[in-house]
Each structure stands twice: as structure tokens, then as C-alpha cells.
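Ops channel
N.P.: pipeline sanity check, posting one input/output pair.
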């Protein structure tokens, strides 16, 4: 009887609770990525009803249902929609990213947390580096972007002092300092290096993207539009935002490769590890990377040397052969008998030797439901060896023949240390969000010159010199406040904030022997007269409002005020619009003003270095803008560059898997800062006595200055087509990327000093003009096919680098380098689900730029110019990847 009564009571209670649960079934849960990262703004719908909820910043939600075990539909733009049956009061849902990365939510370009790259009013490219880096032939961030972003260009320089060690990069053909780099949305510091060796980006100061290990980067967002009103100085061409990895687990990767000429060997080893912290979505992700790249040599050595043997059996002379037919065959046995080798006579022209050791971290720790702590940062330690121009024993004012009887080719050795740290707190006050952060970074470049001499010291000259260093430090304090009003219009996002930035630039002299009386050949060290210890600070306030006026019409307005202690203040604004003609077709456009403050480097960098001036090796000085010599010549004080940006684009998605974007842009820059030509000769290459005498007082024969000399106009078009489709059992992705870019310098120069009127071709001549107008391709395009099936993945990519024109004025000629196609091929196979092996090639068919005409090649030494795809040639690699 007791057993029956107990059973009846149990049944009654169970039925009652079930009826109650069916009437009031409250479900809570979390929405995260596959790696456990919380997802905000995910929509949760009870299937068959109109009951909805939205996840919060920690991915949490609560929702009520009137049925037992309801089906929940969870969706978030950029992720695959998921249905789940809620059999309990708590559910944990993991969403998977859509295959097409065009749908990814982007951080850069707008402060609306719900916008994908296809919904923004300005073009944004997304490179999902975490997905592609195991199959792409390139290993550094600069090289990867060159082949994936048509309007981005970067190639290695040769015999270009420090520029050999930090590759200059450009977006839309503008200067390296006209694109702003962010990490996790926070401003990244620039390098301490000024590019002054008449390379692309001449006179500019860029950001070293390769100081951030590719193994630490989750994705790269490239905003191709002026954004100074949103982010401040430098964002004239656009913004590159590196989003660091937040995944858990272990990844290891090893790559080895070599060129078809058995040089330029590369070894890349990297490790990435991430783990959760606590149970609220916290994580820490760590990356370590080692990269070693050996030198390449692309000089025409076998036609360069004439040498002879005296009666005593010693080599006594050699020189260049203007006519290759006059060259004598080098006898390797004879060289060996005298303890010599070909490299003692040959030129080393090619990529510098670089070794890089890097570490990076990214972390986020929610302290409670309202406060999150985050931090990131890292270190990059780079050692490099580049090569200057060879000195011949016949150069009797350069070579101490008792030390170097056969002359020498100087080596420039560098140690580049890059440190960065960013930390902050995110607060949530109801619907308002506050982000407080501090970001600090420093770049230090130390020079050491070897295999050279200081001629003035004679037999007592060292052959290795500590030539000094320069460094740049930047600290940024930022406060950003934002709120999304879901019920105003069809969504209104409001953001505003303030920023304080401190910058410090230093030049430290080298040892006395490196600079005294002409200094070390190739790279005289910094002297006490070059010493710099300058700083400045700036304050900025900004506001950014973006409203979906209707479901079809988006309007964005941004404004920024900045005040600098060294040149004044500026106000800039931006208006952006997007209108949906159809659900799969809309137009977008933007109008903005922008600015770039003159860098501390441009204001204070100064040195004496050996340069090729009118075909002759001379000591050329770069003098401070506020120096006595600048004042004597009437060089005006630097001021900010100003810009006006216009863009118009179309986005069309005929199907869910096919996306087409086309965007036109027009950029006008006034008072652009350039580095003048070598002043001291006239337009015909003849010395100007009064200038030579003036510069001689400062230990130089010619001089150069930074000045706001030019105005430029840039017109261009970007086209991106991306198509995903099923091909049998496999998946196929086709992408077509194209950029047209035309830069023009106004004929009239700004504020040219009276002494140089009539000498405009020297002050800012055809060579300097061609670096801006025609040294980067006007046309560049990429067609890529990526096919994956079962355990296999195939990548075939053809990149067209269009024609470039180089002007060697005044001692060279004008040369057109025809457009070239570079083919990349990678075949990858998953040995196990966690182990993948890949073989491939960059520049499979060993394509080079056109050979230089003789008058541009420095007597035949420079066989190729470092244009378009560079001078490496075919590069073959093998790679092993492991994940856990």
C-alpha cells in the first residue's frame, strides 16, 4: 500500500511540474565560437513563435518558452545559423564561421559592432590569416598582403642602408606613413627609420608590419578609405588593423625554402598556444616565431672585374669594365693561391640577410559581467646584414690599401628591437560601453658597419665601427564610449572619445672613429652634431555616429579635433552613405578630409651618408628643417599634410556565395612632405660652388631637406570578386582582385626658396617624381583558385604586376619595365586530422623584372631594379603544420 501511494505521489508531482514547466519554461545559456569566445548580439528565436532574445557581451542570454523542449534558432551575421533542442534549462551553443570571409564582422572603419564588410559604407578587405597561412607561399605579413590586397605593395630594396632591413610598404600608391596600422583596434607605433635612399616611400617613416609575427595574427582588416576623422593622423590612404588570435589549443609550423639559384634560404619556425582563463570566456594566446632569411645576390659579377698580376705575384689593380668584352676570365686557382675568392672582387647586390626572433601575446579576462581586462603586446629582435657600394683600390681617397689591397664592399649590420604593450579595461554600464586603454611601443635601430675603413685614419683605421642608433617611442592613452540604440531608426550607433599621445625621437652618436673626418665608408656614423632628443604630445577628441535611417539607408558622420604641441591643431570630418537598392545590391560612398602631422623623424633626422649623386659617390647630408643651413637657404618650416578623399562603390551579391564589389576613389593631398634631391649640383650634374662651399662647412658635398613641396592627386579603382561553390565532393573558391591606381604630382612646386628657382629639377626632380608617379604598378590584379577535397588542398594564384617606369635622372635614363605575371602554387595534404604537409612555390616560373638599361645599372652592377615582384626569382618551399 505504501509503495502504491508513493508511486501515485511521484506521478502527480512529475505531472504537475511538467505542466508548470510547459507553461513557464525559462532557458538560459551562452553563445560562443568554436574556441569558446563569447559572441555578442547573437539572435535567439523560439521556433514557431515570435519570442526572441539577444546575447550580451559575455555571450549570455535568457529566453522563455511555453512548450517543453523547445527548438531554438540561433543566428549571427557571419556565422552559420544553428538549431538546437533545449532539453534542459541551460544550453551551450557554439556557432561556426561562414566559409566566405566576406561576411565577417569587421572592427575597423566603423564602431558599430554588427556590421560585416559587405554592410559597411566604405570598402574593407578581410584576410583570414589563420586559415590561409599554412598554404600561402609567403611567411611575412608584408609579403602576404602584397599578394592578397591589390592596392598594397611592398618589395625588398638592395644597397639602401636601413631600408634593406625594414621593407617600405604602400597602400594605393601613397607613402608608408600615409597608412595607419592598428593592432586589435589600437594605434601601432611607427619605426625609427627614415627611408632616404631614393626608394619607394622616399622621405617617409612607415610601420614595420613584419615586426608582428604572422603566427600571432587571426585576421587582417584593410580599410581602403581615408579615416583621419575617425583615427587621426596617418590614415589618409586607409587603415590596416591586425586582429590577434584568440583561439585555444596548440599550433606548430615549420617552413624551409630556397630560391632557384640556391640562395635566399629561409627557415621559419613558429608556435602558437592558447588556453581558456576561468569560465567566463577569458583566454590567453601566446605566439613565438623564428625566421631566418639568407642573402641573395643578383649582380652581374662575371663581367665586372679587370685584374692583373705583378712580377712579384701580387694583384695590384682592378677596375670596372665599361665594355664587358674587355673583362678577363677570373682564374679561381690563382685566386685560391693568394688566399682569395671571387667574393673578394664581386659585388653583393640582392636581398639582405635577416634573422628575426619574435614573441607576442593576446589576452582577455572578464572580471565580472560588467568589466573585462584585456592586454596584448610583444617583442621583435631582428639582426640584418646588407651591403653598400664596392670601393675599388683605384679610389685613392676611399680605400686604405694596406688594409684592403683589393678594395672592399662595406657591410651594414643592424640590430632592430621592437617592443610593444597594450592593456585596458572594457566597462558596461547598462547599454553604454566604455573602453579605457594605454598602448606603448618603441622601435630602436642600432647600426654597425663592418668590412670598411675610415680613410682619414690610414693604417690605424678599424674595419668595424659602432655607428650609433636611433629610436622612436610612442605612448597613447585612449578613452572610447559607445552605445547601440536598437530602437532608434533601424539602429543608431553613437561613439565618442578622447586620446592623448606622447612621442619621443632620439639619435645617439656612434664611436668617434665612425664619423670623424669623413667617417666610415658607405655609412658614416652619427656624430654629436647629429644627436637628437626631441618629443611632443597631442590631444584629440572625436565623435562617430552611424545610423540605419531605414533598413535600406545608412548614414555615418565622424569628426575629430587634434592639437599638437609642435605645429598646431586641425579639424577633420567624414560623411559616409550606403543605400540598398535591392537586398543583394547596394551603393556606397564617402567624403572626408584628412591630415598627417609631420613626424618627429622628418623634423629632426639628420646625418651624413655616402650617396650616388649624378653617378658619383659623394657624402650627402640630410639637414634638419630648423638648422642654420636650412635657414640660410630659406627652407620653410614643416607643416601638416592635408587631404580630401572621395569614394563611390557598388556591392552586388547575385547569390549567397558570389560577391562583387567595385569602388572608385579620388585622393587629393596638399603640402605633401618630401625629401628634396641632392642640392649642390645643377640640373646638368655640374657642381654649384656656393652650395658646395656651404655644405662643406658641415662635412658634406651635397645636401637634402624635408619640405612641404608638392601636391598630389590619386585616382583609382578596386574590384573584388569572390565565389564559393561545391565541385563534386570538394569545395572551390574563385577570387579575382584588381586595382588601378594613378598618382600625379602637380607641376607647380610649393614654397620653393628663391635660390632654387630655375633649379626645380634638382630641388624635386624627375627621379623623385617617378618614385611617386610610376614606381608602383598602375595596374595590379590577382586571380586565385583554391580547391579542397578530402585531405587535399590546392592553391593556384596568378598575380599581375603592371608596368612601372623609372627615371634615372640626372645620370641615367627613362626605362619602362613591362608588366609581369607571377604564379604561386601550393599542394597541401593532411596526413592526419592534425598534421598537414605542403609543397609549393612563389614565382613558380622564375619571373624577373626587365633588366635595367646600362645607364641605370651603375656600370652594369644592378642587373635588376627592385620593382614590381622584386629580384628574388622562383622560391620553392616545404611546410609541416601541426595542431592540437
Amino acid at each position: 500500500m505504501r509503495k502504491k501511494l508513493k508511486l501515485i505521489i511521484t506521478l502527480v508531482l512529475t505531472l504537475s511540474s511538467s505542466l508548470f514547466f510547459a507553461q513557464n519554461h525559462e532557458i538560459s545559456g551562452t553563445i560562443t565560437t568554436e574556441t569558446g569566445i563569447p559572441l555578442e548580439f547573437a539572435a535567439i528565436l523560439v521556433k514557431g513563435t515570435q519570442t526572441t532574445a539577444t546575447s550580451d557581451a559575455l555571450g549570455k542570454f535568457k529566453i522563455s518558452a511555453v512548450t517543453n523542449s523547445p527548438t531554438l534558432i540561433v543566428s549571427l551575421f557571419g556565422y552559420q545559423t544553428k538549431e538546437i533542442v533545449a532539453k534542459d534549462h541551460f544550453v551551450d551553443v557554439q556557432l561556426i564561421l561562414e566559409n566566405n570571409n566576406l561576411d565577417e564582422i569587421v572592427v575597423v572603419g566603423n564602431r558599430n559592432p554588427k556590421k560585416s564588410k559587405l554592410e559597411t559604407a566604405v570598402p574593407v578587405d578581410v584576410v583570414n590569416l589563420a586559415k590561409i597561412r599554412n598554404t600561402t607561399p609567403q611567411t611575412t605579413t608584408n609579403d602576404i598582403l602584397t599578394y592578397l590586397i591589390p592596392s598594397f605593395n611592398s618589395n625588398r630594396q638592395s644597397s639602401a642602408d636601413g631600408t634593406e632591413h625594414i621593407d617600405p610598404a604602400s597602400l594605393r600608391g601613397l607613402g608608408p606613413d600615409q597608412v595607419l596600422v592598428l593592432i586589435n583596434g589600437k594605434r601601432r607605433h611607427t619605426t625609427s627609420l627614415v627611408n632616404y635612399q631614393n626608394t619607394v616611400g622616399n622621405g617617409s617613416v612607415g610601420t614595420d608590419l613584419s615586426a608582428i609575427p604572422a603566427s600571432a595574427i587571426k585576421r587582417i582588416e584593410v580599410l581602403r578609405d581615408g579615416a583621419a576623422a575617425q583615427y587621426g593622423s596617418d590614415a589618409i590612404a586607409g587603415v590596416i588593423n591586425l586582429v590577434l588570435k584568440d583561439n585555444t589549443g596548440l599550433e606548430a609550423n615549420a617552413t624551409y625554402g630556397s630560391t632557384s639559384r640556391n640562395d635566399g634560404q629561409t627557415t621559419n619556425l613558429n608556435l602558437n598556444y592558447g588556453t581558456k582563463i576561468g569560465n567566463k570566456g577569458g583566454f590567453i594566446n601566446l605566439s613565438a616565431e623564428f625566421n631566418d632569411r639568407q642573402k641573395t645576390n643578383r649582380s652581374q659579377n662575371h663581367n665586372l672585374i679587370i685584374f692583373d698580376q705583378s712580377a712579384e705575384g701580387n694583384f695590384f689593380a682592378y677596375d670596372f669594365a665599361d665594355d664587358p668584352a674587355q673583362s678577363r676570365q677570373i682564374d679561381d686557382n690563382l685566386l685560391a693561391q693568394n688566399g682569395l675568392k671571387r667574393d673578394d672582387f664581386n659585388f653583393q647586390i640582392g636581398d639582405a640577410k635577416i634573422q628575426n626572433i619574435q614573441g607576442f601575446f593576446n589576452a582577455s579576462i572578464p572580471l565580472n559581467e560588467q568589466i573585462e581586462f584585456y592586454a596584448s603586446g610583444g617583442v621583435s629582435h631582428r639582426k640584418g646584414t646588407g651591403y653598400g657600394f664596392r670601393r675599388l683600390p683605384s679610389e685613392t681617397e676611399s680605400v686604405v690599401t694596406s688594409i684592403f689591397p683589393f678594395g672592399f664592399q662595406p657591410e651594414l649590420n643592424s640590430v632592430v628591437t621592437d617592443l610593444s604593450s597594450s592593456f585596458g579595461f572594457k566597462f558596461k554600464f547598462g547599454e553604454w560601453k566604455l573602453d579605457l586603454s594605454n598602448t606603448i611601443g618603441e622601435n630602436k635601430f642600432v647600426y654597425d658597419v663592418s668590412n670598411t675603413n675610415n680613410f682619414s685614419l690610414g693604417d690605424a683605421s678599424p674595419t668595424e665601427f659602432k655607428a650609433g642608433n636611433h629610436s622612436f617611442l610612442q605612448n597613447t592613452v585612449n578613452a572610447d564610449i559607445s552605445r547601440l540604440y536598437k530602437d532608434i531608426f533601424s539602429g543608431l550607433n553613437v561613439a565618442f572619445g578622447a586620446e592623448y599621445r606622447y612621442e619621443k625621437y632620439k639619435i645617439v652618436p656612434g664611436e668617434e672613429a665612425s664619423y670623424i673626418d669623413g667617417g666610415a665608408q658607405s655609412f658614416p656614423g652619427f656624430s654629436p652634431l647629429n644627436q637628437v632628443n626631441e618629443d611632443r604630445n597631442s590631444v584629440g577628441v572625436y565623435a562617430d555616429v552611424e545610423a540605419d535611417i531605414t533598413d535600406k539607408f545608412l548614414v555615418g558622420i565622424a569628426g575629430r579635433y587634434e592639437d599638437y604641441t609642435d605645429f598646431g591643431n586641425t579639424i577633420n570630418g567624414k560623411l559616409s552613405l550606403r543605400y540598398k537598392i535591392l537586398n543583394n545590391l547596394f551603393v556606397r560612398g564617402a567624403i572626408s578630409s584628412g591630415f598627417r602631422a609631420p613626424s618627429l623623424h622628418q623634423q629632426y633626422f639628420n646625418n651624413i651618408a655616402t650617396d650616388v649623386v649624378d653617378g658619383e659617390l659623394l657624402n650627402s647630408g640630410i639637414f634638419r628643417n630648423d638648422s642654420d643651413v636650412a635657414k640660410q637657404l630659406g627652407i620653410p618650416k614643416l607643416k601638416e599634410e592635408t587631404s580630401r578623399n572621395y569614394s563611390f562603390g557598388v556591392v552586388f551579391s547575385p547569390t549567397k556565395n558570389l560577391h562583387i564589389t567595385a569602388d572608385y576613389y579620388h585622393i587629393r593631398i596638399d603640402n605633401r612632405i618630401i625629401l628634396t634631391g641632392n642640392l649642390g649640383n645643377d640640373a646638368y650634374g655640374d657642381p654649384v660652388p656656393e652650395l658646395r662651399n656651404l655644405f662643406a662647412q658641415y662635412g658634406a658635398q651635397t645636401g637634402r631637406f624635408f619640405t612641404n613641396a608638392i601636391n598630389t592627386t590619386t585616382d583609382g579603382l578596386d574590384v573584388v570578386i569572390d565565389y564559393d561553390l561545391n565541385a563534386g565532393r570538394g569545395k572551390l573558391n574563385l577570387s579575382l582582385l584588381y586595382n588601378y591606381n594613378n598618382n600625379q604630382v602637380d607641376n607647380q612646386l610649393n614654397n620653393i626658396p628663391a635660390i632654387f628657382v630655375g633649379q626645380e629639377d634638382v630641388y624635386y626632380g624627375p627621379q623623385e617624381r617617378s618614385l611617386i608617379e610610376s614606381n608602383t604598378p598602375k595596374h595590379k590584379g590577382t586571380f586565385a583558385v583554391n580547391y579542397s577535397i578530402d585531405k587535399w588542398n590546392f592553391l593556384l594564384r596568378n598575380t599581375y604586376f603592371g608596368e612601372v617606369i623609372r627615371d634615372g635622372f640626372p645620370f641615367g635614363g627613362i626605362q619602362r619595365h613591362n608588366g609581369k605575371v607571377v604564379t604561386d602554387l601550393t599542394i597541401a595534404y593532411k596526413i592526419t586530422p592534425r598534421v598537414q604537409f605542403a609543397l609549393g612555390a612563389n614565382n613558380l616560373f622564375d619571373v624577373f623584372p626587365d633588366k635595367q638599361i646600362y645607364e641605370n645599372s651603375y656600370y652594369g652592377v644592378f642587373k635588376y631594379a627592385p620593382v614590381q615582384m622584386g629580384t628574388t626569382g622562383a622560391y620553392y618551399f616545404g611546410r609541416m603544420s601541426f595542431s592540437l
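N.P.: looks fine end to end. The chain has three domains: 2-97, 103-299+347-883, 300-346.
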